[in-house]
Every structure is written in C-alpha cells, then in structure tokens.
Amino acid sequence: MKLADLFESKKLRWAVGPNFSHAEYKPAQTNKDRTVVWARISDIMSHTRRDYALDLNHPRGGAHAVGARVAKAKQHWAAGGYMDPSEIHVDGNTITFTNGRHRLVAAHQLGEEYAPVVVALDELDDLEKIVDTREY
Fold first, then answer.
1. Which of 56, 103, 104, 122 is the most exposed place for a label (fewest CB within 10 A)?
2. Chunked mean pLDDT (size 10), the chain, 136 residues
3. Residue 75 and residue 88: Cα distance in Å, rounded?
C-alpha cells in the first residue's frame, strides 16, 4: 500500500473494535474504567493544553512536535500497519495526552475527521461537552 492510496481511501487501520487483536498496548482498551470513542480530531487539538497542542496543518505537527513522529505514523499506515488509539485525559475544557497526539495529526493529514481515543469513563461527559464524538 502506498501513502497516496491511504489518502484516497480515507480508511486508516486502527487497532480497535474488531481489529483490537492488532493493538500493541491492550491494557488501555481493556481497563473497565476506560472506553474508546471516536472523536473529531480538530476539536481535540483545539482543546489540548496550549504548550502541548500540535498544528494539524504543519507537516511535522508544528512547534510542539517531537521528531519525525507524524511522518513515521504515515509510513506505518502506508506499510499496512494498525495503530493503537490515542489515550487522553480531560480536565474541564482541557485535554492532555498519555500518548498518541502525533498519530492524530497524521490521521488528520491523511483525510480523517475522526479518530479513536481512549478516555476514562468519569471524563467522558466532559469530553462530550467540548469534542464531537461518536461510538464505533
């Protein structure tokens, strides 16, 4: 699969739901106190703590990006790989990440509007107040 094919298909391989067996880090999704929801990527980044937010339109993710992680995520998908969902925390109107912010930038740049995120059940209501979500 080529990177251009991913862009055209707008179907990235996420290790969630029926593809959970492909997850590299399963405890995030199997913890009974957490759930996976599909969330609008742009909403997530607009509510991410300012000094941690990435630029969805910058090829590398902007000033707060780390190395070539966005490019590596795109390459991983282009090679047919599955990606674990991002793990986030919600405190009122602010989102922080345990991991996965660069993969959200890559997904957005590949044409995805929504991506799966793992969030604590007791933070879900706050998330749904600031981010458009849907179940998978």
1. 122
2. 45 93 92 96 97 94 95 96 97 96 97 96 97 85
3. 23
Note the pLDDT of residue 136.
Answer: 63
Residue type present at position 47 = H
Closest CA to 35 of 130, 116, 132: 116
Phi, psi (degrees; rounded to nearest 5) at 122: -75, -5
Dist. CA 36–CA 22, nearest whole Å: 15
Signed CA dihedral, 44, 47, 105, 103: sign only: negative
Question: How much is the pLDDT for 11?
Answer: 80
Domain boundaries, the chain: 3-134
Alpha carbons 80 and 2: distance in angstroms, whole number: 9
> Which residue is associated with the tokens 């492909």?
22
pTM of the entire predicted model: 0.90
In order, the DSSP letters of 36-67 are: EEEEEHHHHHHTB-TTT---TTSTT-STT--T
